[in-house]
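Feature request disguised as a bug report, sorry. It would help if multi-protein outputs had a clear separator. Right now it looks like this:
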Amino acid sequence: MSVKYPVQGSLSLSRNVGDVCGVNIPNDLLTGVQADFYILYTSHYEDTNVVASSRYCYLSSRTNRPLVGMTDFNRNQIQSANGDVLIHEQNMYLVMHEFMHTLGFSTNTYKYFIDNNGKTLTNHIKTITYDGKKTTVLDLPPLTKRLRNHFGCSSLPGAIMENDGGSGNSASHFERKMFFYETMTSGNILSRRISQFSLALLEGSGWYVPDYSYAEPYFYGEGEGCGFIYDQCSSRSTGFPLDRCADNNRGCAPQGRAGGYCQGESNADGCQFYVPDIDYDCENADAADNARLPNLQAFGRGAGSKCFTGTLNTRKSNGGSTSFCFKFSCVTQGASTKLNVQVGAETYTCQEQGDMMIDGYYGHIDCPDPATFCKTVGVTYCPRNCMGRGTCVNGKCQCYKNNYGVDCGLNGNWYN
């Protein structure tokens, strides 16, 4: 993300300002720093479910862009990684989520957004009734255009923002019903994605120019049309089986990294999703302890497996559908796509959506539509474009010296 109107000279504040976000002005801000943005991190410990809070502390007099921000973490709600790569990743997504708030992704800063001529935007903050509640909509050209194209809904008025959760949540996040695992929805979830939409909102502020190559693949609700956005959800049925659920089985979360159970959430307006669970996460080596037929599956960071559903079992009474983690590969031949799934030492091929039997076992594996799977769940990509610490080559990060991990986000001897 580059700054459209950089600070001229050094970033500094006068002692006459008094304080920033209730704390004394740091000395380096008094003397001046070579930066376009300065962020203060603080922490405390309290027995609440609030994980963190963020806000701007000081705005540019020229463009109203935040120059100084603050994030305060509640240590009671944050698990220390202690060498666990998956927890480290969740913590990093939390930091990036809060960082976006301080940059301007906040109901407190929308009114300061500017147009291409540097003038304050007007009529970009709207109010609609959504699922029976008054809801904020942000209509920003780069964001609205991308949303309409993604969902396939030309009448979408803009980004529908969260309408639950009170002042600390409402309107400062994307609506959970529409943006289930986008990093700028409210609430933690395994395997968040920083999508094009978060970057487009910040571009729409008039303050930044994003590099969209850093956006992670995001296909929740893609091409589902206006009904996906406006139709009310029911716990008994769903018209969008690729994205939502209405059963009691364990299935695959939409991004395909983990299995989970069909659940509703208080801020999802009655919709239910297969919520990814760390105990059934294909990138969690310990998830093998919870698996049916673990000897046939592949678990662990970098194992290259994704979530598949099925009833595969060693007994006729198969115990119902559940989730599995299998390695896979996509093979495109002309206009057709085939999906190879490795089950134990054997490879089976999904040529179309349907049941796939496995030699020596009862039940079956659910073959997804190969073309759809390989364009969405099966897409290889470099998480967060290698965090600026490596080069993305054929969907995998080649890390610079002393940087490690699937996203090069670890360094030194921390990573095993």
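(second protein starts here, but nothing in the output says so)
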Amino acid sequence: MKPVCFENKKLKLIDQRKLPLDLIINEYVDYRAVCIAIKDMVVRGAPAIGVTAAYGTYLAALEFEKESPEIFFTNMEKALVEFSKTRPTAVNLFWAINKMRFLLSSSKNLPNSHITILIKEKADEIFNEDVLLCKQIGDNGATLIKNESCILTHCNAGALATSDYGTALGVVRSAFKQGKVKMVYADETRPFLQGSRLTAYELHHDEIPVTVITDNMAGYFMQQKMIDCVVTGADRIAANGDTANKIGTYSLAVLAKFHNIPFYIAAPYSTFDFNIATGDDITIEYRNPKEVSHISGIQVVPNGVNILNPAFDVTPSELITAIITERDIITPPYVDNIRKYGSHL
């Protein structure tokens, strides 16, 4: 289940706004339309956004490669800036943009056509690496899952949020293959319903037992001892382990701490932002209030009522039991151990 695919000079994206009822694949040849697709959440999930921006950069290179070198590089920088303005919280986007910017700056003496080929190769590399990393994250995380576990997850950190396999759901998939998973509880994840629409869709497709609950039911099921651990993905991890993820993650971490339930974050190295000390430095995206006031086009909030719609929140590191990566399982003290992790990248 690959949400991002590049074939015949066309970027193909599963329109995740239409799932689970309709599987629609949109095709793109204009990088500007790709920017809109990211902003409008046709594609979402931090790793998938990064991969999409990488291929979108290639589309820009195809458009401008016949221009003079000066115009080519000027327009490529404009394209990268446009991608950087699409979603401010997920660091994987900026990680992919920086990779492309470095490639461009180190290739100024090459013909435009050659640079375009290098950009495509780099985008393919980012895609393929993400698939491999997700499987490694899954296998590492599965070592933390006990037999007959009931796992709670939030939002969608599965194949649809990555190149394939998933981060948090990568852990679920690997643990399920080992016979360890009894049930996965998927928070519906208001307001965009990524849990009920996407996570449930993925797991049901793979015949992994899944039960959807509303976001405000999580504490009840923890209290009833029906949850053995919580596994979520991440959109940005600070140098001290503070983690930004879909809104509602912080609440789950607080509940898990109170009920002595392990709370795990699963993410690749590209999700770490070693340039920020704490979660206080993470920019939180606020989205259109209509995502809250309407469900499937039906208005559920009175006209004129004020609405706030932050897309993410930050979970302090002291609430996180471990951070599962492709290389290590990072445990406290996070400042020291994340620094060690970063030094090996």
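Even a blank line would do. Unrelated, but nice: The chain has two domains: 4-134, 140-343.
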